What does this fold into?
Amino acid sequence: MSDLENPFQETLLQRHRAEPCTVVIFGATGDLTNRKLIPAFYNVAACGDLPPQFKLVGFARREKTDEVFRKELEEGNRKNSRQGHNDELWNSFSQSIHYHRSEFEDPAGYVQLKLLLDQFDKERGTTANRLFYLASAPEAFKPILEMLKAAGLNHGVDGKWARVVCEKPFGKDLATARALNAAVAETFEEKDTYRIDHYLGKETAQNIMVLRFANALFEPNWNSKYIDNVQITCAENLGMEGGRGGYYDTAGALRDMVQNHLFQLLSLVAMEPPTDLSADSVRDEKVKVIRALRPLIGPEAVGANVIRAQYTAGSVDGVSRVGYRQEDRVNPESQTEAYVALRLFIDTWRWQGVPFYIRVGKQLPKKATEISIHFKKPPQVPFATARLPGSSENTLVIRIQPDEGIALRILAKQPGQALSMQQVKMDFRYSSSFGKASPEAYERLLLDAMAGDATLFARRDEVESAWKFIDEIEHAWHQSATPPTMCEYPAGSWGPKEADDLLRQDGHAWRLL
Ligand code: BG6
It folds into this structure.
């Protein structure tokens, strides 16, 4: 195939041209805007990728002038910008930032917003493209959508576009996700709807498709004939800092991380090759994986395949930590899990019989997200007399973060007269191979939304299929007469022993990170 016929080549060249537009952030005084969104826009500007006719309007309830708003954002940018903070660049970039005070439910606020946007279009010659970013508390999404529609801001005029970006959490179960999807669909077309999952914006997550489909080496072995099991770990060494306990205790690890981020990684690892790289072709294949997950229904199936746990007091990096139930804003009798491990099966030809083990948890020994593919052993090892080391399988490790890279573990003969073998590692590191830091996930995602590329955003059916699967587990935990136990692990350990037993039953063990 020539490069011109190659769909990967074509799309990579064409993407990321952000179009001139005004971005309106709802809930602009929140932590997300300060910590992630503004530094992302600033870094996009620093890379020269922000269109010159760009405006950003912060929409929130508190009284504030443009100057005060800019000053607050500047402080956030100094702390959080990936490429540092340059006063000159900030001064020119921040001139594009404005503040608009209004209640989310006040129609007059939206009429004024429209006037402001029209005025920008006239003054700066910006085209009337608009990106509405819902970063408020999720309860406000519906009223904001209704108000945008009532003000006629939900569709582009004269060939221009109006798009909406929805932050997570996108619902807290299937019913709420459906209701939210319905509200969005009444206001914006699906093609103009961008549901953020920041894991999809991570370079290493995007590289999974390239690794699989652009290298002849891996794809032929990427199936149940050669793969024994797949593990996905997302470990965090933090707990409920910064007042997060209030939200987290209503969500838990399964809703907070598995329904979205971990299922997205799972889909990328397990999907069939898409026919091209259009947003729908990629998402068609991803959603098939979630639909093919073998359902876990009832407390027995859930208890046998899903381990939930809370941390007790312990220490992480030598610092003492309180137990989950003692955390600020967490119910002292909480039944919310801060850790979850799952054994999943994907009922497709490719994956028949291959367990996918997923685990995610707070207050683990370190922050690390990785996917490991554990290959089967060769049918016959000719070195009958040689002693094989404990872990003798070939393993491909995709390090999503930090220390981004890919390692392949293979067996090699130890130098010397005797025939003894040892596992060795072939390692690729982003930092040394590319010599520059990867962009932050939000930089890529914001650019894509401004460029009209929804590939790295979750589609309606993906979100709903994921919730359908998750709801059954939540149901068994919280509504059955015989709910599976809540296990415990000391903060700073690698999770409950029951999660180790889950793999031991199959003759496996979690990869040591
Ligand atoms: C968020 C979750 O979506 O992802 C948090 O709500 C979690 O609980 C965070 O800490 C992890 O993101 P990252 O990029 O730091 O792995």
Remarks:
- The longest helix spans residues 460-478.
- The longest strand covers residues 227-235.
- The mean pLDDT is 93.
- The pocket of 6-O-phosphono-beta-D-glucopyranose is lined by residues 168, 198, 236, 256-257, 369 (CB under 6 Å).
